[in-house]
Write a structure and sequence with these properties.
This protein is α/β, with parallel strands linked by helices. It is built from seven helices and nine strands; from the N terminus they run βαβββαββαβαβααβα. Helix 1 crosses helix 7 and helix 5 runs antiparallel to helix 6.
């Protein structure tokens, strides 16, 4: 008689988080290329679009008024005000994919990750760490996407966010993109064999 693993009753929710400039977006894009079964939830934001970002693919760029209306409709799975802008994950697509037993990836800030874990403790939270604080500062400065004032704010917020990594299920140091990506793939693979 052969043994069989039980079928999944729902999809898994993966939360990728960490301070600004740590490489979440680069890792997320690489991970989605490697895993066609992973669905990425596009967040809403009130911040200005950066060079190279595509509306509807990287973020849904909206006005503060549109964002606040969505809050009142309870249309967000999670939302937070970060670096003086609003960010949020729309509820409907995430819940629909999970009901269809699909795996979902969120690329969100540390505040939002905390909200998701309180709402859905079984979500898999992954914190991306820089190899050092100095390297994080270099990466943020090299981006040249923020004013000096905005850069200072992001660095101050990063200090607070770095203190939260022990609250996550996994931590991955992004010193080298290829090794960090391998670690993320291993986490996703391990979750498929986890006894719930």
């Amino acid at each position: 008689m052969s043994l069989k693993l039980p079928n999944k009753t729902a999809g898994s929710l993966y939360v990728l988080s960490g301070p600004s400039g740590v490489g979440k977006t680069t890792l997320r894009k690489a991970l989605l290329k490697k895993n066609s079964g992973l669905h990425f939830s596009v967040s809403w934001t009130t911040r200005a679009r950066r060079s190279g970002e595509k509306a509807g693919k990287d973020y849904r760029f909206v006005s503060p008024e549109q964002f606040k209306k969505q809050i009142l409709r309870e249309g967000f799975f999670e939302w937070a005000r970060v670096h003086n802008d609003y960010y949020g994950t729309p509820s409907k697509p995430v819940q629909a994919w999970l009901r269809q037993k699909r795996d979902v990836l969120l690329d969100i800030d540390v505040q939002g990750a905390g909200q998701v874990k309180r709402k859905m403790p079984e979500a898999v939270s992954i914190f991306i760490l820089p190899p050092s604080r100095e390297e994080l500062k270099r990466r943020l400065s090299r981006r040249r996407t923020e004013s000096p004032q905005a850069l200072r704010l992001r660095l101050r917020n990063a200090e607070k966010e770095l203190a939260d990594w022990p609250r996550f299920d996994y931590a991955v140091i992004n010193a080298d993109i290829h090794n960090a990506l391998k670690a993320l793939i291993a986490i996703l693979q391990a979750q498929h064999f986890r006894v719930r």
